[in-house]
Amino acid sequence: MNCYATISAGPSGSHMRERKANSRGLPSLLVVMFCFICGPVLLLMALGGSAAQADGVPGGNVQDPVVRAVDIARPAVVRIVTQINGRLTVQFSGGRSVTFPLDGGSYGLAALGTGTFISAHGDILTADHVINPPHNDELNAVLIKAAASDVATYYDSTLARGNQLSPDQMEQALLSGQFPSVPSYDPPLSAVYLSTDYSGPLSATRLRDVPAIYFARVDRVEQESPPDQKDIAIIHVNMEDTPSVQLGDSSAVQVQDNLTIIGFPGNADVSMRPTDFLTSSVNRIFVSSIKTTDSGAQVIQVGGNVEQGDSGGPALDSQGQVVGIVSFGTPGGTSFLQASNSARALIQNLQLNTTPGPFQSAWSQAFNDYASTAPGHWHRAAQEFAALAARYPAFKAVIPYLNYARQQAAHEQLATATGQGLGVPPLLVVAGGLGAVVIAALLVGAVFQLRRRRRPAGMSPMVNATGSQSYPYAAAPGQSAPSAWPSAPAPYPSLPAGAPLPQAPGRAPVPTGPSAVPGSRAPWPAGPGSQPAGLSPSAALPSVSGLASQLPPAARVASASDPSPDPEDENTLVPFGGPPRDAGIRGQPWLSPGGRAAPPTIAAGSQSPTEQLRPWPCGHMNRPHARYCSTCGEPAPPPPTVRRIEQ
Question: What distance in Å separates the CA atoms of residue 530 and residue 492, rounded to the nearest whole number?
Answer without folding.
Answer: 12
